[in-house]
Please model this.
Amino acid sequence: MKRTIIDNKGIPPLAGICSYEDACKPGFTVDRSVELLKRFNYISKGLNQMLAAHLARVPEWEVKCAFGYHLWLDAEHSAAIRKRVSEMREPPLGLDQVPDEKLRVWLDEAIRGDDTIELLVGFYRVIRTEAIKALNRYLDEMNRITEHPTYRLLRGMLQDQEEMLAWGEQALAALVDSPEKERHAEQWEQHLQSFLREAGGIFGDDMLVACELTPRSDGQKYEMDPVPRRDERFIDPYNTSAQIDTYFWDESCSQEERAYSLVYKRLREMDVPEWMGPILYKIEGKPWEYYTDLSRQLWDETRHAMLGEIGLYYGGVPFYKYPIPMGASMILNTDLSPTEAHLILWRIEQSLMPKQTGKQKEWEIAKDTGNPIAMLIQDYDWADEVLHAQIGRKWLVKDYGSLTATTEIADQAMKVWSEADTKTAAWSEQTEWWPQLIEELRENVKKLAATSG
Ligand SMILES: [Fe+2]
Ligand SMILES: [Fe+2]
Model:
């Protein structure tokens, strides 16, 4: 029903956001909006933690990639909601408090998924589907003009969630390939749905149904298993016979070998997101900005390994065909503390900043090789690493008082790491494989030239 006719000269009124009728909707009060945003925030924060807790232990690289990406989106969503809540005259914010004990129980079950199928069912099929429902309901019921900043925020979140869910469903369709696995996926979905029903959904106002099931959780914080795992495609994961860090410096090596040692160096970064997972999950009580910074860095490191994967694809080689060392994440996750692991990461990144020996030089070498993918990869890798060195400095130096003190402590951790590192080298026969890869790449160049010419 139109209440009156307004002459807008044919121009969309209200900045094109909605009609006058929609703009008259009661929507949510500021108090209710804050309450709901706090529930959304709790879900985003929970998802960030769940993915961080499981990234190292899921064996499929493709799942690790998506976890690395999605946990950053979840961290960003939480950051954006926190900012929005802070604009709504609601101090104290209480953004790290549990908004509803029953939501906590639900998420506590989901993080206890065991294999990849359960994790994907929980984090995607159940939680992200519910998040999408809740976001759609909010967008539908809200007044888009009165709380327009919320509208813009949630609309962006919805799009991200839909994309993440689509990935999760495609991954599940691939992994759930037998009636047995279907039953397994269904059982876990039912399990989590029961705990969600007891919470009354993310809004908390659905009809509450008591849950009769025995929870996996004992009510304590989930103890993550930090041992990194990779699936059966990955061979000889402790083989460090290739001197990947030196080949690109060596002017007697062919340009091809120099370019691909840089590409392989990026691929080898698979262990960095594996070792950052425990840093994100286990270090508690920091401001949320710490978790967004580290989530971004974790995603960058995942991307760096993905860039290596792409670089090898460009050369016609599947990423898992030759050994990708896993000793660093194994040692850092099992023999050292998350704080030591963070110090080591920062120390490595800091050491890559000098012009003549660091990232700039890697990029210059890549440029000289004439390999366009290696050059592009190194260009952005360099930019990302400058940011990472700043992130490390921002969070670590204030804990240790000064740059010198932080460097000293980081060097001690580096020493412990390098001593432990010799242990994993003994877990491989160290059969040489690098010349074979270079040979294969050379052959591929010839083949590609023959087909294109
Ligand atoms: Fe990196
Ligand atoms: Fe980095």
